[in-house]
Design a protein that fits this description.
By secondary structure, the chain is α/β, with parallel strands linked by helices. The chain has 2 domains: 111 residues, 2-Layer Sandwich (Zincin-like); 42 residues, no CATH class. A hairpin with a 2-residue loop joins strand 2 and strand 3. Helix 3 packs across helix 4. The longest helix is centred in the middle third of the chain and has 21 residues.
């Protein structure tokens, strides 16, 4: 990702991914320290309502499919978890994009109690140059499954197919659909 330019400054500033030099030889503590510094810069730059120091920042060495996660309780964001394997495989720039993604969740939870990848999320994701769901590490929020042939359709938003699957038939076999909430979604409520 190219560094964005900020005014007349020559070279990257702390909100630019390129300001940091970090590889997988660092410790988890160093990694999280850098993640927090970067997160504070992003919060300030984009005027997000997120308190970096009030959140618990964690590394997951077990997560495989998701790049990061926000956990929330009673609608309030509690922690941000970053996946070590994602950092090791894809590098700091990918992790930085994940941090921006998770900070959008924190912001929208604080402002609107919204944990979805809906319209608000999409608008902010564009501003913050991060992915909504194009990254394979970010799983869909729903699976629409054909009860006959087992075809699985990923759905990231609460479309008509998700809310009223009985209105639709499988395009492959004409079977009926059922909808499963995907528990792998990265904004995880604890209510
Ligand atoms: Zn089918
Ligand atoms: Zn997300």
């Amino acid at each position: 990702m190219p560094a964005s330019s900020h005014g007349d400054s020559d070279g990257p500033t702390r909100v630019d991914v390129d300001w940091y030099s970090l590889d997988e030889s660092c410790s988890h503590e160093e990694f999280l320290a850098v993640a927090r510094v970067y997160a504070r810069e992003v919060v300030a730059e984009y005027d997000l309502s997120a308190s970096v120091s009030d959140l618990t920042w964690e590394v997951s060495t077990r997560a495989k499919r998701r790049a990061g996660a926000v956990k929330y309780r009673d609608g309030d964001p509690v922690s941000v978890t970053l996946t070590w394997a994602h950092f090791a495989n894809r590098g700091w720039a990918a992790t930085a994009a994940t941090i921006r993604h998770e900070l959008i969740h924190v912001h929208l939870l604080n402002e609107h109690g919204d944990a979805s990848h809906g319209e608000r999320f999409c608008r902010l994701a564009e501003r913050l140059h991060t992915h909504v769901h194009c990254d394979r590490f970010v799983p869909p929020e729903w699976w629409v499954v054909c009860t006959d042939c087992g075809a699985r359709l990923a759905r990231y938003r609460q479309s008509k197919l998700v809310t009223d699957p009985a209105q639709y038939r499988c395009g492959d076999c004409g079977g009926a659909f059922r909808v499963e909430r995907n528990d792998d979604c990265d904004a995880v409520g604890d209510d």
